[in-house]
Amino acid sequence: MSLFPVRAPLLIRPRNGTAAPRPHSRPLRPRRKLQSGQAAVETALILPLQLFTLLGAIQLSMAYQARLVNEYAAYKTARAASLYRLECRRMTNAALVALVPTVSGHYPPGTYTEPEARYLALTRAVISAGNRPPNNPPGAATPLTVVDYRLTDFRPEFDTQLDPGERPMKVHVRLAYFFEYRVPFANWIMSRFWLQTENGVQLASGIDPIMAVRDQRNEPLTPFLDTSLTRIAQSAIANRYFTVPIVSTFSLRMMSDPLPGVPLQGRCL
Q: Does 257 score more than 80 pLDDT?
């Protein structure tokens, strides 16, 4: 026997004499419909964030690959400077040839079936573009690479034997590669975020996460980056060429003397 007796439902006796339960004032909505509506709202809130995370991960993986290739391109550029006596055309072409695997997506595959033939065709197309991106917008002058070099311990007589403790002549190369971010939506967000940090602006504050505010330090995130490279990237982003410069350095001993009249420090575009 139950300690709490259950009361019987109140019955309404209509005129015909049969008993019927009292109807509710309003019908209850099914729980399943409520749950489906809640799931739709949660999906609408989370799906854009998940999509941006996926696109950002793809873009970052492509940028990391370009970073690794740029390290090798910096070595090839320093080697060209050491062998070909600081000739700018040789250094730029060496960098472009090494960077072909990261820019090949802009060129049509053509009718080449052999990988070697396709690579040679792509290399010729990249070099013939004149150190400009293949999809550079009209009117924009964004270079694909910028090579800065500096010669140390210069000696007029290159073939003379070094004295004990004397340092050899070296060339120091800094290669800036304006790699294009090609994944839609992620390229716009990531390139502009980098540009704002370089200009000393942070995109969120503790008070309002939407409004961009001026950083208190008023300093860029990477102050070691040349401001001229930042200006080139800013002009490219304004022309919808979304890029973040990848900078690599390499130093190598000179294997030949510089060409007559070549400056010991300069920039190759």
A: yes
